[in-house]
Amino acid sequence: MRITFIGGGNMAAALIAGLHQQGHPDLQLHVVDRNEDKCRRFAEQHGASWSLSVSEADLQADVVVLAIKPQGMAALAEQIRPWLHQQLLISVAAGIRTSTLSQWLGDYRQLVWVMPNTPAQIQRGVSGVYAMPEVQQTQRTLVDQLLAAVGTTVWLDDENRMDALTAISGCGPAYVFLMVEALAEAARKLGFSDADASQLAGRTFEGAIALLAHSGEDPASLRQKVTSKKGVTEQGILSLQADGLAEIVCRAAERAQARSVEMGALLSQGAQA
Predict the structure, then answer these.
(1) Where would I find the Pyrroline-5-carboxylate reductase dimerisation domain in this sequence (predicted)?
(2) What's the CA gap between 154 and 143, in Å, rounded?
(3) Is position 87 within any domain?
(4) Each residue of 116-133: pLDDT tens digit?
(5) Could you count the other beta carbons within 10 Å of the beta carbon of residue 85?
(6) Of 38, 77, 223, 253, which residue is most buried, by most CB within 10 angstroms?
């Protein structure tokens, strides 16, 4: 199977690395990117062939992953449109719906939209996936197999839900990083050095998430287990609840979703988001 990546950014790099690590003997990876040094690294580290500009030969693949910035997608679509003949196209561009991309591609319908998140870079990501109705089940299974190289998948039956998914899993890592920052700052205010504060906060989050993943229990149950009545943890939890932590997170997700909708509308009109 031959997979061509148009664009060699972070998400393409994560997929290429993950697929290479899986070690499929019949897998051929090809990268198109204007940065020659980047292309050479893909070749050296992952055995990928490469080119600096898109040609018809690059589209002679089973799967083509469109991994460029959203602002350049309309021009790319116009360029590759004459070379399409039932290849499966996977877009990882934020904000561009398959209906818009299909229109730019002359009503091409073998399209899948994937919204990964940054933990995909260490094969621990979660990707939202939407496929146009014309994409067959065998192709959907193939998409699952490819994305398994960078984590897990959540399939959507309505691509308008991608805005909500982006607000949760796409933005979620940044929310977590901000919470780690806040806990580290609290540690500094309680007298810990910068190094110790960072380690205490980071390792606490890392361990808590690992415990959640391995315990099989839901977050509320684990929280209740560690929150003794009239204990130290209870006072901290009560303070967070009184300040409306849950409502703060919900408002953040709602604002992120609204911005995702706005960006998608602008991109579909060819405007800068």
Answers:
(1) 159-263
(2) 11
(3) yes
(4) 999 999 999 999 999 999
(5) 9
(6) 77
